[in-house]
């Protein structure tokens, strides 16, 4: 979160030209999972998956997060953002 947040904020600002208002909206949406975290705890305690209360939910969340990051990486291309070449070469 720390290192990736810095890289993502520069990507938004420099490559995608996202303004401060849009960055604030994106940040608010990104925090939503932390807001509903207590609900996740109640669900995992009340409805165990495959006989485990938390382990299966952690594995499922890790796979979902990895697929999400890979999906985001697949959406961005060099022609969309111009981020594949340094500014001095363009």
Task: Tell me the layout of helices and strands.
Layout lengths: L1 H14 L4 H16 L1 H10 L8 H21 L2 H4 L9
Give an account of the 3D structure:
The protein is mostly helical. It has 5 helices and no strands.
**Number of H/I helices:** 5
* Rounded Rg: 18 Å
Helix share, percent? over 70%
Choose one word for the global shape: elongated
Low confidence ranges: 86-90
State the end-to-end CA separation: 31 Å
Structural class: mainly alpha
Percent range for β-strand residues: under 5%
Find the count of extended strands (DSSP E, 2+ residues): 0
Q: Please, what is the average pLDDT?
A: 80
Task: Give, in order, the helices and strands.
Answer: HHHHH
Q: Could you describe the largest sheet, including whether it forms a barrel? A: none
Search tags:
single chain; 90 residues; mainly alpha
Short description:
The protein is mostly helical and 90 residues long. The chain is 72% helix and 0% strand.
């Amino acid at each position: 979160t720390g290192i990736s947040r810095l890289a993502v904020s520069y990507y938004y600002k420099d490559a995608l030209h996202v303004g401060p208002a849009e960055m604030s909206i994106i940040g608010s949406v990104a925090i939503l999972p932390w807001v509903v975290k207590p609900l996740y705890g109640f669900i995992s305690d009340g409805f165990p998956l495959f006989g485990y209360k938390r382990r299966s939910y952690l594995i499922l969340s890790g796979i979902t997060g990895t697929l999400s990051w890979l999906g985001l990486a697949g959406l961005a291309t060099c022609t969309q953002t111009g981020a594949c070449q340094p500014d001095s070469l363009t």
